[in-house]
Amino acid sequence: MKVIFLDLDGVLVLKKDEEAETFDHDCCMRLREILTQTQCKLVLSSTWRLFPPDVHRMFCMLKPYQITLQDFLGKTPLRDRREEEIEAFLKKHPEIEQYIVLDDSKAAFGEKFSDHLVLTYATTGITQQIMQMCVEKLNRIK
Predict the structure, then answer these.
(1) Helix H segments across the chain?
(2) Which residues contact 125 (CB under 8 A, 6 or more apart)?
(3) Nearest 10 degrees: CA dihedral of 30, 34, 35, 38?
(4) Rounded distance between C-alpha atoms, residue 8 and residue 122, angstroms
(5) How far apart are the first and last CA of the chain?
(6) What is the pLDDT of residues 46-99, one digit of tens each?
(7) Which domains does the chain have, with CATH numbers?
């Protein structure tokens, strides 16, 4: 199984000047394309997972892109650091063979995740280049 550990802020939800944070159309389309090309599942690692109204909003915003609950394997548990949350999830799911961490913060991760981390910028999210990198990493033969 292939998985994307998905952060939302800075990945799909962009910070642009004074505007309210919104889900970016192009970033959502690129996430849909990654799912199509890799047949992967999503694991919500964003802090949004801690707040049911935010999770509901996320599903409402992703629905037009045909990204639904069925595309998600679950969410990471709450720990002190995001890398600990991902490690705990991976331990409970040995069926995961390939994974990437799609996030806009390198500070939350140590060297263990360096080969798996795909960094975005808070103002651009999933660009065409990042989309290609995600597909290549997930489709790489172990």
Answers:
(1) 25-38, 52-62, 82-92, 128-139
(2) 10, 11, 12, 13, 14, 24, 26, 27, 104
(3) 170
(4) 10
(5) 12
(6) 999 999 999 999 999 999 999 999 999 999 999 998 999 999 999 999 999 999
(7) 2-139 (3.40.50.1000)
Identify the pLDDT of residue 108.
Answer: 74
C-alpha pair distances (Å), 87 with each of 49, 61, 135: 17, 28, 22
What is the token pair recorded at 51? 């707040």
Structure token digits, residue 74: 């679950």
R_g of the chain computed on alpha carbons: 14
Give the confidence band of 114 by pLDDT, cuts at 50, 70, 90: confident
Taken in order 74, 77, 78, 80, the sign of the CA dihedral is negative
Backbone angles phi, psi at 4, to 5 degrees: -110, 120
Please, which residues have CB within 8 angstroms of residue 42's CB and are 6 or more apart in sequence? 3, 4, 6, 35, 67, 71, 72, 73
**Quick one: average pLDDT of 118-135?**
95
pTM > 0.90: yes or no:
yes
Of the two residues 15 and 126, the one the predictor is more confident about is 126
